[in-house]
Amino acid sequence: MSNALLSINNLRVSFSNGNEKNTALHNITIEVKKGETVAVVGESGSGKSITSLAVLQLLPSPPANFESGEIILNNDNESIDLLHANNKIIRTIRGKKIAMIFQEPMSSLNPVITCGKQVMEAITTHQTISAQAAKIKTIELFKQVQLPNPELIFNRYPHEISGGQKQRVMIAMAMSCEPELLICDEPTTALDVTVQKNILELINNLKQQNNMSVIFISHDLSVVAEIADRIIVMYKGKIVEENITKEIFINPQHAYTQALLQCRPSKHLKGERLPVVSDFLGEKNTENKLPIVNYKKSEIGNEPILSVKNLKVYFPAKKNFLGKTQSFIKAVDDVSFEVKEGETIGLVGESGCGKSTLGRTILRLIDATEGSIIYKKNDLIKADNVTLKALRKDMQLIFQDPYSSLNPRMKIGEAIEEPLLVHNIFSSAKTRKEKVIEWLEKVNLSANFYNRYPHEFSGGQRQRIVIARALIMQPSFVICDESVAALDVSMQAQILNLLNDLKNEIGFTNIFISHDLSVVRYISDRIIVMHKGKIEEEGNAETVYNNPQKAYTQKLIESIPQIKF
Amino acid sequence: MINSFGKRLFKNTGAVAGIIIIACSVIIALFAYIISPDATPNANRMIPEIGSKKPGFSIQFLQVKKNNSIQENFFSKIINGKQDTLTYIPVTNYTIKADSVIYNKYVDDNIIERKAIALKNVGNPITINVKFYLGTDRFGRDILSRLIIGTRVSLSVGLIAVIISLTLGIFLGALAGYFKSWVDDVIMWLINVLWSIPTLLLVFAITLVLGKGFWQVFIAVGLTMWVNVARLVRGQVMQVKTLEFIEATHALGYSNTRIIIKHILPNILGPVMVIAASNFASAIVIEAGLSFLGIGVQPPQPSWGLMIKENYNFIITNNPMLALTPGIAIMLLVLAFNLLGNGLRDALNVKSKL
User: Fold this and answer.
1) What global pTM score does this model have?
2) What is the pLDDT of residue A297?
3) ipTM of the predicted structure?
4) Residue among A63, A393, A407 whose CB faces B245 most closely
5) Is the residue at B89 inside a domain?
6) Claim to verify: residue B77 and residue B101 sit in the same structural domain
7) Are A153 and A169 in contact (CB under 8 A)?
8) What count of Cα atoms within 13 Å lies in the side-chain half-sphere of residue A189?
9) Torsion sign, CA atoms A534, A540, A541, A543
């Protein structure tokens, strides 16, 4: 007790929704010592973010209801119970003693104030210091978080700098008052692997320099492997396991921890079915009906089904006052490749490398500037609307964000049925409905979900709905655009299994776009690495992953968080 | 979703008050000629002798038969009211002598005129007592009746203006927001031009072209208000269009019409309903203003604006209620629609607490 900086004792939090009451945290006890990094790991809905918000008293109450417990901050020989302290005391603690970094750097900075001013504001709120001194301190902090050209960034608006830089600004803001405790809520989830690696190093360095404590929240065990001293695994609002980092990886006790470690695709060979959480917890196997089997090797034909030649997609970047474009952003710059029938191509690259633009251009959702896309002997770029509509049946896209790719005002049954209706695939409403129910069951959802709205489903379930909607027309060509990026590791395994199952069953050609090389290696036959609009490296999946030729690919693979135990 | 929307709406006291006032006025408007004490068409029973009386004035009327016969038809009575079959003569007292009725006709306070009439020409009962709860205007018409029948004008001008403005506004706004490029340029140009003309001037111009009258006002108000709706719809469509599920519909090969009607419009319903409610309120105010200026509803048809115009010079004299009551009626109805609009805005916000 004496050397703990923060101790959460028996915290129980529930949310009231009308007359219903959901308990989000079941008597949680967490202790953070001075200078220690504690990682809290669990899937979405496990209560890890609620724990961190409770510490800063950022949960709106109601609906949040603190039923029991205490959160004690020990500080200069006095301890404060944050749960029962008044607002004035809490405000002096927020930012000054405990600071927080959020997941989404894109939206956690105010877009109309320059980065420098925002950090200055954080400084002047808690310290009586002149504007000049605050500015000097801000620039110093920018240097400390390794931002290039700190003086320049000071006057930049958030939209003018990259995601990784924004997260560095957020960290600078959090560090501005030298907090004793830093809470990081999935600070790297929205970032590329290479940037993630740098940010993790930065947080670790800052912690050592300032001797502060860190609570690091993540859904991915491998991210925290390198920086955490201790790991707490949470599941459904309970702490299921707590141990020092090494022990968690070498000797995981709880079935859920084992599941989290096992379901990552990097641990498995291509074609192996991924285990999912329910396999370990011995729950009713509803989500994952089939036993663990190995998939037959996909039959790859010799004929290319799709060939992209010298494709260029430019966006106007700067126009003169007559509206004539003066310079371009070259999103896809002279890209050529072929996809054979039945093949799965992995398209990898950092955000902004043009991989999503390429995928959308192939489907003609974005117009190409130059080049040709030949799909089954049709040039898609020259295709008229009638041909294009016929081809849409055959080419589908599965999206990244399951939360925004479904119309919130449409029942999911209708959403899945709609493509059949538009393309006149079954004439009678009854056969259509039967088909929809068949597909709901195929993606392991219940038939009586037909009349529900999207907001009633979890992210993983929504992604299944999106997959059902895309595949109900039995397309022979599917592009998955970061389809598992927004999901937890455990969900990710389920969706990857589902995609493999369906591919086995109906056999489609697939381009799998992702920033995560380990996922791509697991699912694809061939990998194409893109960088700044151009193809950097191309080859057999295992070869590229294990023996990358180009420096850029090597850097990408190096940045994947590794568990070195 | 509908359920939680209703729950949120009915938790909002203001919105509930608004709904109650609106519901009452709709009922009053529908059954105006049944409720109203003066059920003649346009509540236009003029009795000059009792002009400009204060609220609560009551007097005895001698009922004298007219020489016209009126077909009794329930539906036409509800819609248009019913012509009087009797003439009403204000009297202070009367006596029956043989086959005639001798009465003291009320001319003004303390002035009476002694007259006689044949008994067979008198209705049954011979006299009735009438109380004018809100007084009478200078033609001796019942203010309450005219107020009740005037509800129809206000509600229908709101309704029709909202229908016209929503149809035009959603159609043009959705086109502009969805297709952008030259379609957007053309529609925005039209919107900006209309926007720059003061509303009242524009309505003047339209009524000059279409002529004065009841229906012309509806159309004129509707044609000026679609601009608000179109601007709002355009912005909302642009925003929804960037969401991934709209891109998904493109990838699935849906037609543009289908995407707009089935996927975009349902998602912008919330703000559109809010602006519909506030347009309803402003249409009522604009109509009242037009009628006040004399280019709206034409007499003898009762309209609240017209009633204020007819009686506003009494405000500083002894009888201010003549102009104040229609003013209060306008205020209440406009307030009700604005309260409903605010309630809708809060209730349609899915993130708000239950």
Assistant:
1) 0.76
2) 57
3) 0.72
4) A407
5) yes
6) yes
7) yes
8) 23
9) negative
